[in-house]
Specification:
The protein contains seven helices and three strands; from the N terminus they run H-H-E-H-H-E-E-H-H-H. The chain has 163 residues and is mostly helical.
């Protein structure tokens, strides 16, 4: 069964176990990732999310970050203060101790996952360029853009068929 955007429902990447194998963290490990990032210096929430994505290729949702930040703040592992309208978090001595006591690193990005996120960024840039052309271009420009995208899609399927 194909969904609205042409993907099979439950699509999970290049191989069936891709998402689960490379993106899962153990329960409770998000706090260690956040503390690791804050060990480098104070940051606000979206800056933390961006840094996690930069380091690992994994971009956690705000829904997993902000409640964890609040829990860590309430536990005394970090502090939060308003700076220019944004809440900026800093790790405390207790947070550093918690980080030092942890047994194993909580999450290590698989190289395939990092490459998949690089590809996603490239696709988003291509999509933005195509939409700019569709909004601002004349019929001939739109037709040329469409031909390029169709050819690229066919080329990708050819590559996948070879592998």
């Amino acid at each position: 069964m194909f969904g609205r955007h042409g993907f099979k429902f439950g699509y999970r990447g290049p191989d069936p176990g891709f998402r689960g194998k490379f993106m899962r963290m153990r329960r409770g490990d998000m706090k260690y990732l956040l503390l690791e990032v804050l060990k480098e210096g104070p940051r606000h929430g979206y800056d933390i999310i961006s840094e996690l994505e930069r380091q690992s290729g994994y971009r956690p949702s705000p829904g997993s970050i902000y409640p964890t930040l609040q829990m860590l703040e309430e536990g005394g592992f970090l502090t939060g203060e308003q700076v220019e309208g944004k809440k900026v978090y800093s790790i405390t001595e207790e947070g550093l101790k918690l980080l030092a006591e942890r047994a194993a690193p909580p999450f290590e990005a698989h190289p395939k996952m990092a490459r998949a996120f690089e590809l996603k960024k490239s696709l988003m840039k291509l999509g933005a360029a195509a939409m700019n052309g569709a909004c601002d271009g004349d019929e001939e420009t739109i037709d040329r853009i469409s031909e390029i995208i169709d050819k690229a899609r066919k080329d990708v399927y050819s590559i996948l068929a070879e592998s």
